[in-house]
From TrEMBL:
Belongs to the short-chain dehydrogenases/reductases (SDR) family. The gene is xecD_1. PANTHER family: BLL5898 PROTEIN, OXIDOREDUCTASE, SHORT-CHAIN DEHYDROGENASE/REDUCTASE FAMILY (AFU_ORTHOLOGUE AFUA_5G02870). Residues 6-179 form the Ketoreductase domain. It comes from the Bacteria. SMART domains: PKS_KR. It comes from Mycolicibacterium obuense. The lineage of its organism: Bacteria, Bacillati, Actinomycetota, Actinomycetes, Mycobacteriales. This is 2-(R)-hydroxypropyl-CoM dehydrogenase.
Length: 275
């Protein structure tokens, strides 16, 4: 119960990584305000958690007013305090620079980069009141390495990494820690939809698609949302009290590899059965 008595705000909290983060934080003693644009999944998540441990707020944190309203609701739930902010909301439309719809570019940056900035700005007065304030931003391996045909997503996630480090420098004197996690492939409803592209190209089903995208990584499998949530919980806790500005890869080792060296290995010859 290392988060006992603390209050957290988790954006994009209805499904996938956000849902797992909310569940993990509650399991460690925190009270959690989950935020998302669709009420149904949020309400189902809150109903599944112990009474009094979570509330749901329907909001679009890329909108200034909604971000401030969500933060205020979380602080009210915490009796005026906010200890943990997890910026997880994100979208990822495909497209290269020359063919990406400009409205999608604007929306991707609004959700993935401007949204975290807005929630951080709204949360700062409350975080300063906390005895152990922590912000964890969910970026991506796509913020560290290019992903073919994902210009807006990669640019926004790279920006989120630098926003994390900038905030760690600017607000370290306030005792507020800022860190980011960079997941690789995680089995979520969103990534399962992404696998449709792999299936169209190579055949098979969702399981074989996940095996294909992970077969050349050191651990040769994709992550569960709970595995990402465990790292978020660590960074939010006092166990990481001297960690700030860290960009933690939670990717099974995928960003360790120079892909040009795979020709020297016989382990990349066939997909791993593990998914």
């Amino acid at each position: 119960m290392r988060l006992d008595g603390r209050t957290a705000l988790v954006t994009g909290g209805g499904t996938g990584i956000g849902e797992a983060v909310a569940q993990r934080l509650v399991s460690e003693g925190a009270r959690v305000c989950v935020v998302g644009r669709t009420a149904g999944p949020l309400d189902q998540l809150v109903a599944s958690l112990p009474d009094g441990t979570a509330i749901a707020i329907t909001a679009d944190v890329s909108e200034r007013g909604d971000a401030a309203r969500a933060v205020a609701a979380a602080a009210s739930f915490g009796n005026g305090a906010l200890d943990i902010l997890v910026n997880n909301a994100g979208i990822g439309p495909a497209g290269m620079i020359e063919d990406l719809d400009l409205d999608e570019w604007d929306q991707t940056l609004a959700v993935n980069l401007t949204g975290p900035m807005l929630t951080i700005r709204a949360a700062l007065p409350f975080l300063r009141r906390s005895s152990a304030p922590s912000v964890v931003n969910v970026s991506s391996v796509a913020g560290r390495r290019a992903f073919p045909g994902m210009a807006a997503y990669c640019a926004s996630k790279a920006g989120l990494i630098m926003l994390t480090q900038q905030a760690a420098v600017d607000y370290g004197s306030d005792g507020i820690r800022f860190n980011a996690v960079c997941p690789g492939w995680v089995r979520t409803p969103m990534s399962e939809r992404d696998m449709d592209v792999v299936i169209d190209l190579h055949g098979g089903d969702t399981d074989t698609a996940f095996a294909r995208v992970s077969r050349d990584t050191p651990l040769a499998r994709v992550a569960s949302p709970a595995e990402i949530a465990s790292v978020v919980a660590f960074l939010a806790s006092d166990d990481a009290s001297f960690v700030t500005g860290e960009i933690a890869a939670v990717d099974g080792g995928s960003t360790l590899l120079d892909v040009s060296t795979l020709a020297f290995s016989d382990t990349a010859a066939s997909p791993s059965p593990s998914v």
